[in-house]
Structure formats: structure tokens, C-alpha cells
Amino acid sequence: MSQDNGPSPWTVLAAGLWRENPIFALVIGLCPTMAVTNTVTNALVMGVATLVVLVGSSTLVSALRKVTPGPVRITIYIIIIATFVSAVDWALAALLPAAHKQLGAFISLIVVNCIILGRAEAFAARNAVWPAVLDALGMSLGFTLAMLMISAPREILGSGTLLGHPLFGPRFEPWVIMVLPPGGFLTMATELAILAWWRQRLAARRAPAEAT
Residue 138: which residues within 8 A CB-CB, separation 6 or more? Predict the structure, then answer.
């Protein structure tokens, strides 16, 4: 994709937020989504960690794309991603030890998150650095947004809190299922159904205009 005749920067950035959202459109990266979205804090920390790794790795993969041997490109991508994941892991352990303990192995498992490797192979390795950075930003922000959309109702209903602050009185009975893995699937399924309904409405509104 050249910057002269390819998609606009906004189109590249916005793709991950809506049309190609990793969770709600592509339905990938579900392991951390189900595991860490029991609180908004965990979801936000995981989203920021993924953003740093995705932007950093996509930038480096794109910068090295012309000198990366094809037969070993996946190995090189994994090494690059693992380097950024290790740096993020150490930074979280030093700066946010409580969040690092809560997320546990899921920080290290960013290495095998198909969102990261998929964007390196499908986009960063085939485009210049600036479009690769925009794509990585869009995908990681879309991932973070989806994580927050799932974690907020789970924490509110499952713990009666938001960002750790109580929302209801002492009579509130938490929905324990919401902080368990089934609660993640239920929340995500509900939101996917709502988004599918909304997309159908938008398509139905556009159809008469396109017909004329």
C-alpha cells in the first residue's frame, strides 16, 4: 500500500476500532478477553500493555521488512514481539506490582496473541512504517475499547464496583457468575448480538440510498 493511492490514514486507524475490531468483528484474542475482564482495571492494564507491544513490534517489523528473509520471518516476528513483551512485563512488575500479580501469566502470553502476530504478518510486513503504526494503534485501541466494554458490566454486576469503588449499598447481592469465565462469555455474546443488530440497521438504512 502506498501512501499516495492507498487508504487514508484515518481509514487505517479507524478500521481496528469498528470494521475490523479484533474482538467484536474478527473475534480473535479471546483468551485474555475472557480471563482478565473481570475488572476494568485489569482490562485497562492489559489493553495498554497490548498497545505498547503491538505498536512497538509493528513499527520494527515494518522498518525491517525489506531485509527480513522470508523463510525465517515468523521466527523473527516472534523474537521481536517477545522482546517487547518482556520489557512490558518488567515495567509492570516494577511500576504496578499489584496489577502485574493480578494478570499473572497473561502478560507473558501476549507473545502468542494472534492479534499481535497477525498484524505483523498481514499488515506491518507489507507496508511502510507510518501506516503500520496507525494500523497497530487502531487495532490496539479497538482491543482496549472492547475489553473495557466487556469488563465494565462484569465488574458492576459481579462485584458491585467500578474501578474498585462501590456503587451500591450493602444490600446489593453480587452476581458471582459475572466475575467467572461464563460471565465473560455471556457479556460478550450479548454485546455481539447488540452490535450485529446495529450493523443490520445501518445496512438497511444505506440500502435505499444505494439503490437510487
Answer: 12, 13, 14, 15, 16, 17
Return the SS3 of 203.
helix
Q: In degrees, to the nearest 5, what angle opens at C-alpha 41 toward C-alphas 43 and 31? A: 25
Say how far apart CA 37 and CA 70 lie, in whole Å. 37
C-alpha cell at 152: 465494565
Q: Look-up: residue for cell 505483523?
A: 120
Note the pLDDT tens digit of each residue in 146-203: 999 999 999 999 999 998 899 988 888 999 999 998 999 999 999 999 999 998 888 8
List, for residues 122-156, the tens digit of each pLDDT value. 999 999 999 999 999 999 999 999 999 999 999 99
